[in-house]
User: Fold this.
Amino acid sequence: MNCTRRNFLIGGSTTLFLSGYFPKISFASMQKKNLIIISLRGGMDGLTAIPVIGDKRLKKLRKKLILEDVLNLNSDFGLHPKLEIFHKLWQKNQAAFVHATNIPYTGRSHFDGQNLMETGAHIPYKEKTGWLGRGLLASNIIGKGLAISLPMPLLLRGVPQNNNFFPSPDFVETKLIDQIYNEFKGEHNELIKSTLDTIRQRPLSMQIATDSDDRKKLALEAAKQLKDQSGPRVAVFDLDGFDTHAAQGGVDGAHADELEEVNKIVTILHENLGQAFDNTLILTLTEFGRTIKQNGGYGTEHGYGSAILMAGGLLKKSQVYTDWPGLKKKELFEGRDLNSTIDSRAVYNSAMSICFNQDPEFLRKEVFWGDELPDLSQELFKI
Amino acid sequence: MSLNFYRRVAFGLSPNEKPYKDPLNWAINQLDRIPDLLWPGTIPTEKDLRKKYGEWVYGDREVLRKKFKNDKHAYRKAKDELRIKTGERYFELNEHAIRHFQTKYSKQPVFERFWLFWGNHFAISEKDFLAEFSTGPYQREIIRPNMVKTFEEMVQSVTTSWCMIHHLDNSESFGPNSKKGMEWGETINENHARELLELHTVSPNAGYTQEDVIQLAYIMTGWAHKWDRKNLETGDIWFDQEMHQKGDKIVLGVKYKNDAKRELAKVIHDLATHPICIKFVSTKLCRHFITDEPTDEMINPVIEAWKKSDGNLIEIHKAVITQAYKYNENTHKFHPPEIWLMQLSRMFDLNIPLSFEKMNYTFKSKPNNRQRQLSWILREIGHSPYRAKQPNGWSDLEVDWVSPELLLRRFWFASVELPMLVKSGNRSHGFILSCLKNNFEDHENMASLIDNFRFGTSDYDLGQKYGVICNLPGVLKI
Assistant:
């Protein structure tokens, strides 16, 4: 029932006022829960984001990449100084981390890995839909997905009528959209037709022209949308640039710059979601971690285990949740990568069960083909 | 044969072209030789631009940062001046102009479509200042001359090009048992080796292992840019024996004897002629020209032509076009934004790119808005060709190009921006109708959709007409 561009332009501003504001009251009793995923493409280095403290082996292998001053989490783990919002939220039990985790993929290819982190499958390119899209569909939550990117991420595909937000420099007349829509009516192109449907039903608040290079503005608008009780329930951000083969750096440098972007998005979401932050979960997603050892260019190579950064009021408590595999040579995956001891899909499945009010067993079967994924809701989230 | 064939394999027909009697021959005859670049303005060499790149990074990194280390404001100002002086903000715009001038006016537009294809197969993604200085000349000087040679020769050139080596960090890869590797305690960087296997040649279908990647990286050690204090990383590519891993290597079960710089050519030969590579690249070609999910029936004749000609790209291209012709009536292909723009520009004779006189740059002030226009449009419709996000380049699949915002941007371009690109002599309704007739079977139906505006020639009226025409089902997807 939210106000769309269409009925705004047909009905004029009175309609806008009526249809835009009154329905909210009737929905106010049912608090909506938001799930926000931030994709970190390129392979996020869990050991840079959440460094293990005082590990001599790591210091030896990563001479040029060691962080001098980390933020303190607990006796075992620190936090990269650029992730200060997580540190702030940690004090309030609103930030937590899963460490030594990854999707069950060990092939070290970005493109296969990113395909699998989004589909949640075992064989690259086999599935055409994303786990988040399938989760929404299984929970019968339609038209509530929002991507903060120009293309529709694979992660959200599989449920119809997703929206994305990445405004163009100017408006498009509704009349034109309707005309094109009419011409597509007789065509067998469900993808374009359903996308045109979504365009026609967009809330008025998304009809803005702005500079889409400004991630701050995008995150701000996303927060506004998510705060709206009748707005989206799922949002997906897409960041790239984590593939730091060279000049990865420590406190500053290429990886730090990317972490700073994550920090920026979470900061803005936190500031602008207001009360809705209490009913929100923010989780990161990446294709793999990076090697323990630095390479020839003071960067790192593609690895295996990484970490998930989490924030939001639906977290159970501040913690680094891990079954730490250790960093000795024989404890590493193939002698070079941090191992993954937690299938990250278990974390995402549990998060969906919390945010979509679904039985995790049901989701596991519907979304992940019944793969063995323990329910971690009790450990990680407020239920 | 439907008129859409001219858009399937090229960019449609311009107002002064007429449908050809034998479209298949018309297309196939374009592939034997390399057409000249037509851009009448400046076409700088790769080497010149690399020199500019060097001036920019040296000037910034070694001079300005040190000179103004305590004055951020002054640093920013000096850096902006350096940008102007080195053309850091200009050369990419010029490259886009060269590219779009070519696809608009080339007498061999089918060849140009293959040029775009290979540039994206061996993509250079957004990294450092490659888009600013290097990716454009790489397309012209590395990709283009190899399009009448063999696939293997193309891979050899690409792999040892300055642009690709910089893009995939091979200069930072040291054989751990090499002289420099031992002295400096350095090791390999796998990035380039991995993408050579995965993206450029055999694909993961070949089932290579981590050890294969490492062994190939060993073979590739030593291929690096020649570093010096003044040019930094922008020196020529050479083979540095002191970085090269000694000893025999084994990749995909084949042993390569310790043979210094000759190892690379041998392994590339084996990769580029590998049956899985042939199938992988043939499939990509069919995907580009026929449909998103080509069948074996479509692909097999391309594979046959490949094998029969030992990977001769002219023969491979001809086979692809023959297949595209054969399946033209029964398959559909959604074109990504840049190709759509090129087609509109050619079919409706738009003012893209800006004239070469107006593109002329004096290196005295920032490029003006008109000079930036084409590049800005490309970015806004979501397809800035030299800025793919990752080394796998831009997707060729419809699902990756259809989202609310991506469609809205096409609507926006056709209805708001395009009218300003219509030449003053082309504003009449009759002009549009003749272009439609030249390119679409159902031109009468299309004309009826814009009939309400037949007397209108203002930007607004043209926006109403082009907004619809350019986004019809049969235009977005052939």
About this structure: Residues 5-27 of chain A form the longest helix (23 residues).
